[in-house]
Amino acid sequence: MNDDKAEKIALFRYGLIAPLVLETLPRGELTRRAQQVASRLYDIPHSTRRQVSVDTLLEWTLRYRRNGFAALTPKPRQDRGQTRAVAPETAALIERLKRENPHRTGAALLRELAPAQAGTLSASTLYRFLRARGLTERQLLLDKAPAHKKYEAEFANQTWQSDMLFGPWVQRAGPGGYPGKMQVFLQATLDDASRLIPHAQFYPNQGLDSFLDCLRQAISARGLPTRLYMDNAKIYRSPQLARIAASIGILIIHTPPYQPQGRGKIERFFRSVREQFLDPLDPKALLSIEQLNERLWHWLDTVYHRREHSALQTTPLLRWQRDIEQVRQLPPATDMRRLFFHRAYRLVRRDSTFLLRNRFFEAPPQLAGKRIEVHFDPLDLAHVEIYCDGKPEGAARLVDAVVNGRTYR
């Protein structure tokens, strides 16, 4: 299995067990959460199965706690090439018997199937079949229709919400240096328990680069959230975001389709931004994006965070500070910028160059013709790291055609 497939499977596994590993849970609560996860159907990468058993989830949880994210990478099967299929007639009989009595054990099923199977069906094959078909006792008895209730996180940084707001028009330099204008977009994160804003900023675009920069600054300022709740937009389902979340231990949760109610708090914050911050601005006096952000941060620090919230009976800042001892922080030596680097694969040309974000970079000559992985900050391409076969190969250099033209070849 190649590295791309293995990483995709490991990220999927982490997404399932994140609710089980990000908090210290008593055994009963751990099992209950695992049952909830196992009761759902999934599009499992590179597999025809749709469900994952409770036992498998608990095994992945143990592996992650012992050896981290790398332990979730699939290992080759030792019994590859051996027949493990269950005959259709036997499969139908197993399903009928199990559904008639969900409490019927695997040992009892093997006894009843013995005449037909003549001992060819092993216990491990039967248990894998039951888990794959959703026929375990837990899966058959679990209630799959939990009630939708009003939710509020118990502690600060337990859940963050994130979303984007279309902002005003600002100044920009037009052709020939003449003044122009452009629309900007507000990326924001909100702490569910306190309504505090870990970070918010206007950006010139609404893409993934802007969102990840906002998230990076939010974590730098206010620590790590346990869960990050957002909608189903394409940028929020990016492999880059999934990789970062798995590396630092954040559970990504997406709003169910056509159910935006779960993001009500950040929608209410955006309404406050429009009514209290944007509406008083003079539309005829266009600001620069830097000026607009300076005013936004001043309003957050002096007004929004220090004004009593009606639902909290205190200010967002005081409510967040109440739980400050429980806030997770990254180790002091963590390089946040490198942690949020994007990753992309490129093929180095014969002249030792490769194209990245519409710019040509030079790689070491020995990498010509090879496939490399580059790590970079999309908002600052001054430092681009090169890896080949998982090993660092130094930094790429932006091509300077004029300098290259002076070099004797």
In terms of topology, how is this protein built?
Blueprint: H1 3-21, H2 27-38, H3 54-67, H4 88-100, H5 106-117, H6 123-132, H7 137-141, E1 159-173, E2 179-191, E3 199-203, H8 208-222, E4 227-230, H9 239-248, E5 251-254, H10 264-278, H11 289-302, H12 316-322, H13 336-339, E6 342-347, E7 353-356, E8 359-362, E9 371-377, E10 380-388, E11 391-398, H14 401-406
Parallel strand pairs: 1-4, 4-5
Antiparallel strand pairs: 1-2, 2-3, 6-9, 7-8, 8-11, 9-10, 10-11
Helix pairs in contact: 1-2, 1-3, 1-9, 4-5
Q: Sheet bearing the most strands, described?
A: 6 strands, antiparallel
Strand adjacency order, main sheet? 6-9-10-11-8-7
CATH architecture of the largest domain: 2-Layer Sandwich
Terminal CA distance reads 42 Å
Helical segment tally?
14
Low-confidence regions:
79-83, 143-148
Helix/strand-derived class? alpha+beta
- Can you identify the CATH class of the largest domain? Alpha Beta
Proportion of residues in helical segments: 25-40%
Radius of gyration: 26 Å
Shape verdict? globular
**Beta-strand percentage range:** 15-25%
Please, how many domains?
4
What is the overall pLDDT average?
85
Task: Work out the oligomeric state of the chains in this entry.
Answer: single chain
What is the number of beta strands? 11
Helix and strand pattern: HHHHHHHEEEHEHEHHHHEEEEEEH
CATH topology of the largest domain: Nucleotidyltransferase, domain 5
Superfamily (CATH H level) name of the largest domain: Ribonuclease H-like superfamily/Ribonuclease H
